[in-house]
Amino acid sequence: MGFLSILATIVGFGLVSVVVALFATGLMQNEIWPRIQERVETAVNGLPLIGEDEPEEVAAPIPGDTPADSLDALLTQLETHQVLLMQREKEIQRARAEIDSVLVDISTVQTDEIARQAKLYASMKPLEAARILHSLDDPTLVAVLKKMNARAASKVMGQLDPRRLARLSMEEIGRPQLSAVTPPNAGEGS
């Protein structure tokens, strides 16, 4: 759909809305429609219709006082509002694009940071890494463990709290990642 057809649709809808509002308020029936009928009769007969038998002096029309002038003014207002709305819509679209760009940047930074941390923890001794990872919140812990290679992750997970790992396995970590983990002290005393 082209710009002009969208503009025509919006202006048409605006005009219909104005006419409906005029009818709803009674202004159309009480003020505008009688003036339109009067102008039609004047144009057809050449005489104003003020009374049936009494010709009276017709006052000169005041500019801006006719229904056509009122409708033209309303149309101009609608067009102005439409232009303003289109400008605001463009501003909103620009703001959305900026927000989306920032969100992509944040996501990239977070992904890179998680990968960096996973590499760092994978190079540490499992017990030391587990002590640090123990204090992380669950989503960060899961993200780091998912980014670690399977061997390093299983060693670190073997040092973490088994109840927390069980809960996380149900929520986010897949069972294949946990299958290689044996809880601490599981091999002792059996």
What's the story with the biggest beta sheet? none
**How many E-type strands?**
0
Task: Determine the N-to-C terminus distance.
Answer: 75 Å
Which whole number gives the mean pLDDT? 77
Query: What class do helices, strands and sheet pairing give?
Result: mainly alpha
Helix content: over 70%
Unreliable stretches (pLDDT < 50, length at least 5) are 186-190
Write down the domain tally: 2
| Count of discrete alpha- or pi-helical segments spanning 4 or more residues | 8
Q: Quote the beta fraction.
A: under 5%
Return Rg in Å: 38 Å
What is the molecular shape? rod-shaped
- Please write the string of helix (H) and strand (E) elements: HHHHHHHH
Key terms:
single chain, mainly alpha, 2 domains, disordered C terminus
How would you explain this protein's 3D organization?
This protein is mainly alpha-helical and 190 residues long. It has two domains: 3-53 and 64-95, no CATH class; 107-178, no CATH class. It has helices at residues 3-25, 27-45, 67-123, 126-134, 138-147, 150-157, 162-171, 175-178. Helix 3 (67-123) crosses helix 5 (138-147). The two termini are 75 Å apart.
